Fold this protein.
Amino acid sequence: MADVSIHPSTLAGIKRLAKSISRERGITHTAALSAAAQAAGFENFSHARRVLAAQLARPGRSTLRTVYITAYWRSREGSGRETAVIGLPSPLDRLLTPVVVRSLHGRFRLDAADHVEATEDVLSKGAALDAVTEAARRLAFMAATGLRPGNALAPYLWSLDRRVDKLPGLDHPSYWYLPRDKSGVIIDEPYNHFLLQERMEFLKGSGVHVALAFERASRGGRGLHLHSSATSLYVITDDEKRLARLVRSLEGCNYMEAMKVESAPYEPLFVSPARAALKKRKQGRPQLLPLDRPIVRRNALAYQVMPGQRVEWRPAARLPLAGHRQIARLLVALLGCDEINSASYSALQNAHATLARWLRLEFPPTLRANADVDLLYFGAKASDRQLPAGMTAENAVVQLLEALRDGYPDCGPLRKVMRPLETVLRRLRAKAARTAQLPRQRQVD
């Protein structure tokens, strides 16, 4: 039986699939060619021949690889999947490093050398379409420019970010770097299309340069920011030659023009040509947890934020509200403390988000005596955003760890939250030890 969920990516592949369809369905070869082309993501065979021939005819584009991007959706109204088909000059398995995969919004993973798919289901067909479209835009952007996602706190971006912090109209910034020389680049996508002269004047003498690559880039499929309103795309970096190269490469970034999106039932799961060639069992979709009985293992309770998303774990026993109040006050105060560096801040922020989620799961609306439960972690007063008088950050972290140990049973999810906090404590103690040594060194000198 011809498997039309396996999508050919060449004219020869379309013709081979057409022969199988013609034999099985008893239809003419012309009709089978049209069906095979539609299975490959084209309107008909003529459209497939025109698009694939155009890809081969483009200067420097003779080696475009077909890439598939899939997201699945599930709701009360039904379920399905959206698969985007796009041609890129770089092999997908070479382009998708672990950092790049994490930068694709929606938790994607590399399923095969030509296929990337969302690991979790989304809640609607529109959300799935947005997910594959945004992922396709980012992959096309990276393939055209050679840029890779960067960290704003990294040395190659930190100095650049500080100099553009007050840039007029800065909106939707994203941070990138060129792997060959670790040079930083900021992509900015504001709604205002008339900022170039004002920005150039603002940056005069700073060593930073800006260029407008596209006006209304989001509507043309060339921007990174997926929004119904039109945004323009600005490139910001500290080298004029690099800026000119990036703008030229973006002008040739028209991979999205030939992108096609196929809507299909949830099952059978999408199988790309590279996945089919592996002849290995495809990883299944997230399982739905039973609603009639909890799953508890080693003091941990399984849960899903939404059906079809990955299974996560939390402590099986509830932390009393008094414990949550104490922990929330300590976390909020530590997040506003000057003693906390950027790495420790990130660890505290992750713990804050996790514990706020556990609170909502432990105390659903039916168990809440008053409405202020929702505000424990996010409704702190200004006076609560600083440590009490006489309390150091080190003492606050010690109290935080003790409250977690006393309030929850020992389990994997709790240890996962506490390990980064223990690292924060070690950093603070090391810093205090270094500070204590300074007076003694001065006395010796």
Observations:
- Residues 108 and 118 are 4 Å apart (CA to CA).
- The chain is about 40% helix and 15% strand.
- The chain has three domains: 11-57, 63-284, 296-441.
- The longest helix spans residues 412-444.
